[in-house]
Every structure is written in structure tokens, then in C-alpha cells.
Amino acid sequence: MDYAEESLRLHYKWRGKLDIRHKMPVATREDLSLAYTPGVAAACVAIRDDPAQSYGLTGRWNTVAVVTDGSAVLGLGDIGPLAGLPVMEGKCVLFKAFGGVDAFPLCVGSREADEIVRAVSLVSGSFGGINLEDIAAPRCFEVERRLKAELDIPVFHDDQHGTAVVVLAALRGALKLAGKSLGSARAVISGAGAAGAASARLLLSAGLGDAVLCDRRGAIWPGRPGLDPEKEALAAVTNRERFRGTLEGALRGADVFIGVSAAGLVTGDMVRSMARSPVVFAMANPVPEILPEEALAAGAAVVGTGRSDFPNQINNVLAFPGIFRGALDVRASDINEPMKIAASEALASIAEEDGLTPDRILPLPFDARVRERVAAAAAAAAESSGVARARRGQGAETARP
Length: 401
Description:
Blueprint: H1 3-14, H2 29-35, H3 40-49, H4 54-57, E1 63-68, H5 85-99, E2 102-107, H6 113-123, E3 129-132, H7 139-150, E4 155-157, H8 158-177, E5 186-190, H9 194-205, E6 210-215, E7 218-219, H10 229-235, H11 247-251, E8 256-259, H12 268-272, E9 279-282, H13 292-297, E10 302-305, H14 320-329, H15 337-354, H16 368-385
Parallel strand pairs: 1-2, 1-3, 3-4, 5-6, 5-8, 8-9, 9-10
Antiparallel strand pairs: 6-7
């Protein structure tokens, strides 16, 4: 099938992938009086007196804003907020289909962090969470950091953290198949943007032995000329041996390659230079850093990509719907590291139950266990780490005063 041609045809047919439907009847005068005026005034007054009642009296408890400036869309790059709208609608569909979360796209027409932060802050009261999407680095780091500081609802940049959660889950299974442990493994990450930076941080938080990040100029190390503040911060916690060479040099003796960069950067010879039974996650889209058959022929024990037409697709859809489901269920004020690690462990546990194989280190997103297990793990971690403001199972509503 020509997916581009067929998808374009269907987009013309759909004229948008979302619609809004009401939950209550509006067939009589009494219906109108209860859903709208005069009855609705009682709900308004209750929220005025106690803003937390907005979670029990409106759809806020289950609504997430999917926010973009259109500056880093899929493999298309900076195409602008309007052109990014079909992707944001698609993201909203995934939220609903795989997490039961109502999501709404917000495409912000600015490249200024100040304006993006202000726009999101001004409308945040309508939502229970904010999902940042396809915002270019390093602006994405500033936008997320400032919104987390300003808002009392979860803010989650999926390109960073969703990727990291699924990478960690996949790596747990892959290293078991390779006969290695997370704590003794050294990983090389190609790409020091949003996904690479977040993956390095989460892997290290989970106990990875070491990670070397490489950008276009090679390995990142403390004091390397020209590093921006984000890369300087990463340099301080990665690359323990202070390696200063190229990606090719960094891969010698490495246990893991994680690619979130560009096509064709890794050769079979580079894989052969890695440690025994290496793990290769070549996740560049649409063309990976090295094709799976080439990596396997060079001795890789397990290969994953970002594509659905190869085994072991490492895809954010396994993470973000369940993480937000769990966060919303306990009215979490944040999505923190313990929640991300717990979600990753939940994904890994499903794959282990089914039996790990070199072609199956992750569950499929259509597996009903994914939503429930990831949501439960994220909610439990929110409770134990102190960011939950309700108990899961109470229902989404705030108890009536």
C-alpha cells in the first residue's frame, strides 16, 4: 500500500480525526435547565468557592492539551503549527484509543519560549495535563521546565520522556537476552536532542552503568567548546571515561547503541567493534542509522527501530496514554522520574511474561494489559512519591464538600 497516498485520501474524507459529543440529553426544557442555565450556575459557584471542584464538575479531570509550535514535526522538521495539526489530531486519537483520555490539539503560532509558556499557562485551567509535542530542542527544554514550575498539573514532553520510557523498557529485555545487566552496560547514544538527552537521564536514573552522548561533532564531554547549557548539564553526568572522539570511536567496546539521530550513521564494522552480543536500537525515521539485517549480520543480539514494519518497534504510544491515565486518575501535580521508571518496568514485565525473544522485547500497543499496567504503575508511583492529590479507584471526582 502507498501509505502516503491512502492517508491523504482518508484525511480529505475524515476532515479532521476528532469530534465532540455531549454526554447528557438535551431533548427537553428540563434537560436544558440542568445542563445549562439556570442549573449550571450551581456548578460555577462551587468551583468559584473551591477550584479543586473543577475536577468533579467538569471534564477537566480527563482532558489533556497536546501543544506544539510545529518546529520539529515527525521527520518533517520545522513545518509550522498549522501544518503540524494533522499530527496533533493523530496524537489525540492515540490518547483516547489507548488511554481513554480526552485530548485537544493546541497549535501555538510562535517560536518564542516566553509566548508559548504564556499561551499554555493562560488556558491551563481547562485541562488536567499538558502534553508538549514536536517542539525543537533546546527550546523544548526551557518550555517544559518553566511550565512545570508554573503549573500545578502534569507537564510532559513526549518526544523526550515517552521515548525514554520505552527505550528503558526495551533495553531491560534486550540486555537479558544478551546475558548482560543494566548496571554493567555502557551505552552510546547518537543524537543529543530531546529524545537522546531524556533517554540518557532516565537510563542513568534506572541504574545504567554509563552513557556517552554523541552529537554531530562527536562525544560530549565537560568543557567541550561550544556546548549549550543543556549539553553542559548532560556532560556532567555522562561519559565517565571522558572519551573525546567520534561516534565510531565511542562504539568500540560498547554494549548498547541507541540512535535518535539520522540515517546511515552506523556501519556493520562499527557494530562488529562493539562488545559481544551488542544491543542496537537504530530509531531514526524513516530510515534508521543501520538497517536491522545489517546489524544482525554484524553480530547484534537484539535490534530495535522506530518503524512498525520491522520487529521491536520502539514507539511512544506504549507509554504516554497509560502514564497520563495514571496521572489523571490520582490528580498528580507532576509526572516525575519514579512514575516514568515504574511505567517502564510495567512494560518490561508484560514482555517478560510473554517470553522474551530477539524479535519480541516489548508488548504491542494493542495489548489491553499495556494501558492498565502502565496506568496502575504510574499512579502508584505518583502516590508513593508524593505528587498524587487523590487515590486511584476513588473515581475522578473530587469528593463533595
